[in-house]
Specification:
This protein is an alpha/beta fold. It has a single domain, classed as Vaccinia Virus protein VP39 (Rossmann fold, 3-Layer(aba) Sandwich), CATH 3.40.50. Helices cover about 30% and strands about 20% of the residues. It is built from seven helices and seven strands, in the order H-H-E-H-E-H-E-E-E-H-E-H-E-H. Helix 6 links the parallel strand 6 and strand 7. The radius of gyration is 16 Å and the shape is globular. The model has no long low-confidence stretch (mean pLDDT about 95). One of its GO terms (biological process) is methylation.
């Protein structure tokens, strides 16, 4: 599959931080993502009290929605602004603490304890820091990761997932020659080869 000129495109952490600072966050959905609502049963698989991971979480409203259902939510996001906005917009009190294993990283946790958001690069996380997850809601991470980092991203996700966990993954389909991304075009064939 021809992914056009996107193969070598790299978006820096600074560019992402700038998007948040400038409010250029068209990818954020105020009402949550309709596909999560539609396929929630697939993600939860009839289980309650799951640990659910939100890679590159931004200020996704679904984090509170799933936590309110009794699940434990963990997210990671490079933008501290996004994480603080999440807690402020939901009027959720939180405490902030450093993450000793990751230089400069912070963890913002709801005082109820069921939402923990890490402010750092996703590649700094490991299962020894955040544990393993029963479910993953990837609604914009794989398509935001630089194409050259996809294998690294998927390898990390595999180490964070429990044996019988489910991952709900949203991608976008378009002609990659007409849009430079992000979101990047990830053909289905590549998803199958990445995740096996």
């Amino acid at each position: 599959t021809d992914i056009g000129s996107q193969k070598d495109r790299v978006v820096s952490e600074e560019e992402w931080l700038q998007k948040w600072e400038m409010g250029n966050i068209g990818f954020h959905k105020e009402q949550g993502h309709p596909l999560l609502q539609k396929y929630l049963d697939v993600l939860l698989n009839g289980k309650s009290g799951l640990r659910i991971f939100f890679p590159l979480c931004g200020k996704a409203v679904e984090m509170k929605w799933l936590a309110d259902m009794g699940h434990s939510v963990v997210g990671v996001e490079i933008s501290e602004q996004a994480l603080k906005d999440f807690f402020a917009e939901h009027s959720l009190p939180c405490c902030e603490e450093p993450v000793p294993e990751i230089s400069g990283a912070k963890r913002l946790q709801s005082t109820s304890g069921n939402i923990s958001l890490y402010c750092c690069s996703i590649y700094d996380l490991s299962s020894s820091i955040v544990g393993k997850f029963d479910a993953v809601w990837d609604r914009g991470a794989l398509v935001a990761v630089n194409p050259c980092d996809r294998q690294r991203y998927v390898s990390l996700m595999m180490t964070l997932m429990e044996k019988n966990s489910s991952c709900l993954l949203v991608t976008v389909s378009y002609d990659p020659n007409k849009h430079k991304g992000p979101p990047f075009y990830v053909p289905e064939s590549e998803i199958k080869s990445l995740f096996g």
